[in-house]
Amino acid sequence: MADTKLEPGAALPALSVTPDKYVPHRYAGASGDFNPIHIDPEFAKAVGLPQNILHGLYSMAQVARAATQAGGGDPRSLRRLSVQFRGMGVPEQEITVTGTVREVKNRRVIVDTVAEQGGNQIVRNAEAEIEPGFTE
Amino acid sequence: MADAPTGKRYPPFEYEVGREKIREYANAVGESNPVHHDPEAAKAAGFRGVVAPPMFCVVYSAGAMGPAILDPEMGINLMLMVHGEQEFEWGEPVCAGDTITTSVQVKDVFEKKGMTFYVFESESRNQDGQTTVKGTWTNIVRGG
Questions:
Q1: What CATH number corresponds to the domain at position A69?
Q2: What does the pLDDT read at residue B117?
Q3: What sign does the CA torsion over B7, B11, B13, B14 have?
Q4: Considering its fold, how many domains does chain B have in total?
Q5: Domain with B35 in it: what CATH number?
Q6: Is the pLDDT of residue B141 over 60?
Q7: Is residue B3 part of a domain?
Q8: Is residue A1 part of a domain?
Q9: Do B88 and A81 touch (CB under 8 A)?
Q10: Closest to A29 (Cβ–Cβ): which among B24, B35, B85?
Q11: Which chain A residues are Cβ-neighbours of B136 within 8 angstroms?
Q12: B59/B139 Cα distance (integer angstroms)
């Protein structure tokens, strides 16, 4: 892993994932967040959403995965992550996480990253701090 | 907007980390690294046991965040609330068998562009008193 040189301007390896129809249900069980807007399409439509939507923290977890993988894959390499949630993510459509190294301070690599789905930014203005160097 | 109590603290919440819960979470978000599933792989990588993915912090923090968001004194209209921003800064890794205690306080409440921002801060520590994560949670209510 971590073939990419983490130097300013370098692109992170993109991470693509298509959450299947039941991901919001599995994430609800794993996280304890059973808000019906995530798991009940009828309820979601009744409150004006196009369909049931992904949990924002699920989408943030995909950004965390991409950043961790860029740092070599060890969970200790991800030191900080801040994100904004704006657009809504939906199941059964590909999410792509991309990122660019902004700067390197000592061993800390600071990355600007974003998660997009169908041209819509579902996690934006995300900033990750990675400390590569843990090996598996 | 209610007179929101900046600085208010909520009772600490204790969470016992189970191996199967880590696996369930890892499967739900697509974390396939064996250190999140297999005790031997985790130990070979230097962990005490199966290690949680960083974002597992939302699982053990949830019980501390709930009462803060639902606090009538905060006056958050849940029907109009969206999760706007989130930040985590990680410390010590969390492994199966750990007991994590999370404390939450109100950091700030402010209005901007007709919306009210409710900002909470959480800090989680393990059984040895080491910080595992610090979180900043921003919920936004349209129209306040």
A1: 3.10.129.10
A2: 95
A3: positive
A4: 1
A5: 3.10.129.10
A6: yes
A7: no
A8: no
A9: yes
A10: B24
A11: 82
A12: 18
